[in-house]
Amino acid sequence: MSKNIKLRTENLNFYYSGFHALHGISMDMVEKEVTALIGPSGCGKSTYLRCINRMNDLIPGTRVEGRLLLDDSDIYSSGVDVVDLRKRVGMVFQKPNPFPKTIFENVAYGLRVNGIKDRDFVARRVEEGLKMSALWEEVKDRLHSSALGLSGGQQQRLCIARALAVEPDVLLMDEPASALDPVATQKIEELIFELKKKFTIVIVTHNMQQAARVSDVTAFFYMGELIEIDATDKMFTRPKEKQTEEYITGRFG
Fold this sequence. Notes:
Elements: E1 5-16, E2 19-30, E3 34-38, H1 45-51, E4 62-70, E5 73-74, H2 82-88, E6 89-92, H3 103-113, H4 119-132, H5 136-139, H6 152-164, E7 170-174, H7 182-195, E8 200-204, H8 208-214, E9 217-222, E10 225-231, H9 232-237, H10 242-248
Parallel strand pairs: 3-8, 3-9, 6-7, 7-8
Antiparallel strand pairs: 1-2, 1-4, 4-5, 9-10
């Protein structure tokens, strides 16, 4: 059975003003798989992640060369609606960032921004988002209380629900569990396992065990270069590159 390529990166170079941050990145990501990006701090993995939904556009003086294709369409070609792109490519950040609004309004936010006014539809999508993020049972009786009253782990799942409510194709996660305790981290990992049935997921993580547990494919970045990408079980048992092996076994990084 041939696998459907959801994201294809072709010779991507990225610059912050004069700094060359990503060097000729080429890789494919398969639909409904989890790809983990690993590597030491400052190696380019978060920069690459933010290229996928053009978050780096918000930083003055950045420049992109090469192509990044979502369903065979280059997201950097002229005429791409970046707002529409970010609907299709949701993002969850390292620290939970709920808005100072109710739980309900946090999840409904993206729908309202997109001009959806049908109250029944919004309520249905909020419930679906909270169910998909495994939060519904915990919050269904207090949807109209402040999201800031939730625990850190609940806030992170709320941010995932917010991203899912607009029905993206791809979910980007930038170290989604690094600010959480082990119990909350386990819930996020279980959630990723469930979500990949519907979504293509790209996760940046510093945690080798987490990458091994949640991902189908692992990509190792170092100094702005993609050193190696392969099936996760192969990467963690018999990597091709010495650098990869040294990083995974903790000899550097």
